[in-house]
Amino acid sequence: MEQEEKEEEGGGVKQASYEAIVKSSFLMGFVQVCNILVKVGLNKIVAVFLGTAGVGVMALYQSAVNILKTGCDLGLSQSAVRDIAVVGKDGPDALGRVVAITKRMILWVGLLGIFVTVALSAQLSRWSFGNENYTISFLWISLVVFFNVIYGGQMAILRGVRQFKALAKASLFSSILGLVLTTPLYYFFRMKAIIPSLLITALITVVCFEYYVRKIDYVRQTVGFKSTLREGSLMIKMGIALMYVNFLGVIADYIIRGYLSNVGSVETVGLFQAGATIITSYFGIVLTSLAMDYYPRISLICDDNKRIEGEFNRQCEVGFLLVGPLIVIFLFAMPFFIRFLYSNAFLPAMQFLELAMFYSLMTICSNSMGIILLAKRAVSVFFFTSTFMRVIMVGISMFMFSRWGLKGLGAAYVISGALHWLLMGIVIGVNYHIRMKRGLIQTIIVVFAGALLAFFLKEIEVEWVKYLCGVMLLTVSVGYSLYIGRKEMGIDVVRWVLDRLKKR
Asked: Same domain for 273 and 125?
């Protein structure tokens, strides 16, 4: 009897965990879709009012801001999530102290961002535009960098306390307000509106997020300089490692693009960029949404490997069930997506994209394993595995592209993804005895089988037969996801979504 009660209790906890994953994924997925739509609208407005030159100038400023923000925030926007999640369970007093430390360190690195941008303003103008005519503009950009760093810290706080509704509202409100307020500026002032618009958008984002941060239940505290450095040292250490990994990714992408440009052409770089953007910006919506709650959730139980194993398996299972049908849709409708997002000239990007889709599937498990390392503060292991895999990816990509072009590059991503998955599995298994359970393995096999079928069936030359096969395969894929969700997870996704729509 006692055993049955324990099983029921365990089943209840398991179902609650699944529901939390699905709920947060749907919520953040919706937000990301809305943000993308807002960005598409903004890009359209800039393109209409400012033309190609305006779009180019905007892109250069945004690239500079992203690089400076990544370098100057020392990874605190990511590392702080773990500390806030762990301490948050100890009550408002403990939470108040770590939030105060986080805010103070974020303020410091934000000021560092201003200093670095101002010091490099003339050089940034030369790098971006080939002259120093934009030096004054980059002085103003320093404030944009500052606000972006502050916003990153605010997001870390909301993620750490798992206030995802507040995070979603802040993201939506800031995006919409930014679009509404900056559109008239572009209409009346054209090119002169770029810097003010970037400033206004960044400031609005900070204000919106601060509003929801202040609503968190914690005791406001003041922490001294020495205490901040002492208690925040581990946060800084892990943050620097994360910053390094982020920069490593940027450098690796730059090397690959440079190689494609020299061995292939600028057009080849454009095709690769189009494919990579679809994977990271559009297809990656699901993966990003899944990871949003996973990090703080794992951080709360970072000392219990058994519970981590359960959360890891549930996280990956939900990920594969959500992504499986999307893979089928993307593979069959890829020409339509490319034409819609770009033009017919970008259709050759399919050679890379149709294989790189499988890389995205593999990252569901490998990224989830990497987050476990972060939650456990295994900084050196995370540092080594990330460096090793970036070097491997660059080497394999160069080799495969030189022989088989864009198809070879897509295959290189698949091979790199498989090796990363294997490496992380060994690291997690050996060090923490965390493994994939039978239910997850079964789901992986089914989803990969469906993706492979879609990969081959899309080559059918008779259009109506091809799309009939696609509809049938998609129906089976969705049906399987709903069946497992209901039978194994206790979640009726259709009913769950309908209930939430009714409440709205």
From this structure: no
Q: Which amino acid is at 467?
A: Y
Residues 6+ apart with CB under 8 A from 178: 38, 42, 200, 201, 204, 205
Domain residues for the domain of 196 are 14-220
Which whole-number Å values give the CA distances from 197 to 32, 67, 116, 257, 404, in the listed order? 21, 19, 22, 30, 44
CB 157 within 8 A of CB 99: yes
Spatial neighbors of 13 by CB under 8 A, at least 6 apart, are: none
Q: Are residues 216 and 241 in the same domain?
A: no
Are 200 and 300 members of one domain?
no
Mean pLDDT, the chain, as a whole number?
86
d(CA 356, CA 451): 12
Domain count, the chain: 2
CA–CA distance, 278 with 284 (Å, rounded to integer):
8
How far is it, in rounded angstroms, from Cα 149 to Cα 69?
6
The per-residue pLDDT for 496 is 61
Q: By CB neighbour count within 10 A (0-12 exposed, 13-18 middle, 19+ buried), where does 126 fall?
A: middle
Where is 355: in which H helix or E strand? helix 350-375
Q: Please indicate, yes or no, whether residues 210 and 247 belong to a single structural domain of this protein.
A: no
Q: For residue 210, what are its two tokens? A: 């601060």
What are 335-393's pLDDT values in tens digits? Answer: 988 887 777 888 898 999 999 999 989 999 999 999 999 889 888 898 899 999 999 99
pTM: 0.83
